[in-house]
Amino acid sequence: MQTVAVTGGSGRLGQAVLRELHTQGYQTRNLDVVDDGGLSDQFTRGDILDEEGLAEWLRGCDGLVHLAAIPAPGIVSADQLTLVNVVGTVRVLRQAAQAGIRQMVLASSASALGLAWGRRFMPQYLPIDEAHPLQPEEEYGVSKAAMEVYAAAFARHYALHVALLRFPTIVPADGIESLATQMEEDPELAAKLLWSYVALDDAARACRCGLHLETIGAKAYYITAANHLAGSQLESLLNAYYPGVPRTEAFRWEASLISSAAAERELGWRPTVAWHA
User: Fold this and answer.
1) Phi, psi of 266 (to 5 degrees)
2) In the chain, where do the E strands start and end?
3) Domain extents for the chain?
4) Is this model's pTM higher than 0.85 or not?
């Protein structure tokens, strides 16, 4: 693989992905509405809803990392969020597949589970893995779940290798302590996030690893730090917010409540940054 196209490469995760790809010897193209300051080898100011522009931009690329999206509900109208996150993704997938790109990574979200933005999500078991059903109830989580369905359809039709990376809160390594403090001060919000997080550089590395998915199809992976941000309070917090939720044999008090074991096993990705109380 020589050239990787990155949508949304000027955002926080996008910039980290461009840096990661550069250090690993890839040529990069970035499509965004904001300049990336020279991080990519080729920057194009554009819109993922513009199919003609996408077709031209993707020509000659070997891989795709699709990050461009409205990142949360409430920023724009629900209709506009759905247009960008779902229709935009469909257009990116279509043009990438028609350009002959077969290795793709799409940024999904743990919000597809129903975390973060809706009413409190109630897990069927802990730790959560990719077999757990998705139960989103607001437009952002629904957009990510819908994106995954479309990706699976394109993967079947075009024999694509698509890694769907479900990220929790992404935070720079030097911001993890602050996030842990925020969660301690707002336990309700922390519970809605299942005390999960992943370091920015680890998330970027997961995107690079996802480009080498060997199986045909669209495969979802949770990408989380190895531990959680509840610290020694986890037992009391689980009793307060998630009483009676069954725990599988994989449950460990110190480990993340959203398992990234599949990504470790199938993508060769492992988190390197973890918070310590």
Assistant:
1) -105, -25
2) 3-7, 27-32, 42-45, 63-66, 103-109, 161-167, 170-171, 198-199, 217-222
3) 3-266
4) yes
